[in-house]
From TrEMBL:
The chain crosses the membrane at residues 21-42, 48-66, 87-104, 110-129, 150-166, 172-191, 212-233, 239-261, 273-294. Keywords: Membrane, Transmembrane, Transmembrane helix. Coiled coil: none annotated. The lineage of its organism: Bacteria, Pseudomonadati, Bacteroidota, Sphingobacteriia, Sphingobacteriales. The keyword tRNA processing does not apply. Signal peptide: none annotated. This is ABC transporter permease.
Length: 304
């Protein structure tokens, strides 16, 4: 039964990839390219690159602990098979990062990654529900859902930020603020049902501006405590805080715009590629944001 379950998961992943419009033969090339990019960035920024990879795997492992999903597995498989599946899934998740750590001789980070995979195999978190209150309003809904999927990651980033203040390491604090902003970007990955837009009386421009405003304000609700403390403690490096703040002000609207360029489908390869380009050369966002903004307006006219 375990083999059948793993085959089913493989088919689901294959269908998700084909939904992007790309042939399945491209998947291994993208995987190799992404792994090489992570390896290259790790060479350039060994400390923060290692943190980033660990936190990325932490969030992926956390998503696999969602209660409803694990309740289904428990009801379907025996206890032994359930934990076997969880360990195998976690092993597949950490495998690319583990290979990079071992290749570079980062044994400590590799051991930490294995420990995370083992611990998360025996944990179940209720990621949704009234038991996890959020500081966000229902509009936009993305931050309520996103927070309940990533609250543990946000908590870890705040702990790292506090450590950065304690050891007087401004770069670590900026890394945590940037991590919070990137986490918020991924909240806009999934589209809402079409009737949400049908019920709106706003024009496409007003709809997007409202999304921008609420998204930025709620992202700043995450990041502003660290930013303000950073500007106070590291007052001589306030310009770096402004750069990160500017990144939030541009990157989040860009992610929202890409969501409604792709709407009603999920964000696929073309939009992800545009986002990666901006990560690689951030000033490019000044040219791409207006271009995709008008594409989003044109697309939203079909639904508003």
């Amino acid at each position: 039964m375990i083999n059948n379950y793993l085959k089913l998961q493989y088919k689901l992943l294959t269908r998700h990839f084909k939904a992007t419009g790309l042939p399945i033969v491209v998947a291994p090339l993208l995987f190799i390219g992404t792994s090489y990019l992570a390896y290259y960035l790790l060479l350039q920024y060994p400390v923060f690159g290692s943190y980033a990879l660990l936190l990325s795997n932490f969030q992926l492992l956390f998503l696999l602990t969602e209660k409803n999903r694990n309740d289904f597995l428990k009801n379907t498989f025996s206890k032994k098979n359930f934990y076997t599946i969880r360990l195998v899934e976690n092993g597949f998740v950490i495998l690319p990062t583990m290979a990079i750590f071992l290749f570079l001789g980062l044994w400590l980070y590799g051991a930490a990654l294995i420990a995370l995979a083992l611990v998360f195999a025996f944990l179940i978190f209720k990621a949704f529900g009234k038991s996890i209150p959020t500081p966000f309003t229902k509009k936009p809904f993305e931050f309520i859902i996103g927070f309940r999927r990533s609250y543990l990651l946000i908590f870890i980033l705040y702990i790292l930020g506090a450590i950065g203040f304690y050891v007087m390491n401004p770069n670590l604090v900026l890394f945590c603020i940037a991590g919070i902003a990137l986490t918020a970007v991924f909240y806009y990955q999934l589209p809402e049902p079409i009737f949400y837009l049908w019920n709106s009386r706003e024009s496409p421009a007003r709809f997007l501006l409202r999304k921008f405003r609420h998204g930025i304000l709620q992202c700043l609700l995450f990041a502003f405590p660290l930013l303000l403390t950073y500007a106070f403690i590291f007052s001589s490096e306030w310009f770096n805080a402004l750069i990160v703040l500017g990144g939030i002000l541009f990157l989040l609207p860009f992610a929202i715009t890409l969501k409604y360029v792709a709407y009603p489908r999920e964000i696929n390869f073309p939009e992800v590629f545009a986002l990666v380009l901006c990560f690689s050369f951030y000033p490019l966002i000044l040219a791409l944001l207006p271009f995709y903004y008008f594409k989003a307006l044109k697309n939203l006219k079909n639904y508003l």
